[in-house]
Each structure stands twice: as structure tokens, then as C-alpha cells.
Specification:
Order of helices and strands: EEHHH
Largest sheet: 2 strands, antiparallel
Structural class: alpha+beta
Length: about 80
């Protein structure tokens, strides 16, 4: 994700630290199942993972209706 808007600046004790934003490619359930398979020892409740997820979360969905609208707008009218 290159670009100026793809970073976040955090003020840590007067020092500005720049972090790159990351995109989660799994659902929370899938990430929880992967965590359990990689770390079978510790017990971790899924509600704890939802508590530490980012505050501003967006879901990107393209529905079939939206695809049809884009296709209709790109075809020349007769």
C-alpha cells in the first residue's frame, strides 16, 4: 500500500513514529482458527481478539447490483 494516506503517525512521548497501515485478509473467525492451529498451548478467547481490533474498520464488498451499474454505465447508450 504505497502512498501518504496509507500511513498513520503516532505521538509516543513527544516522538512521532510513522506506521504503515495493514489490511486484514481474513475474517476474525478465520484468524482465530489460524491462531489456534499455530499456538495450541495458550487459551485465547475470541472476544479478546475483537476487543483489540482497529477502531475504524471498513468492509469492502462489491455486490452484484453494483457490478451491473458499472457495466451499464460503461456501455454506450443506443
Amino acid at each position: 500500500m504505497p502512498g501518504k494516506r496509507d500511513t498513520i503517525v503516532v505521538n509516543d512521548d513527544g516522538n512521532k513514529i510513522t506506521y504503515q497501515k495493514r489490511i486484514m485478509l481474513y475474517t476474525i473467525r478465520e484468524a482465530y482458527e489460524l491462531f489456534l492451529t499455530e499456538h495450541p498451548g495458550p487459551s485465547c478467547i475470541r472476544s479478546n481478539q475483537t476487543a483489540i481490533r482497529p477502531r475504524h474498520q471498513q468492509e469492502i464488498l462489491i455486490k452484484q447490483e453494483h457490478k451491473n451499474i458499472y457495466q451499464k454505465s460503461s456501455t454506450p447508450s443506443q
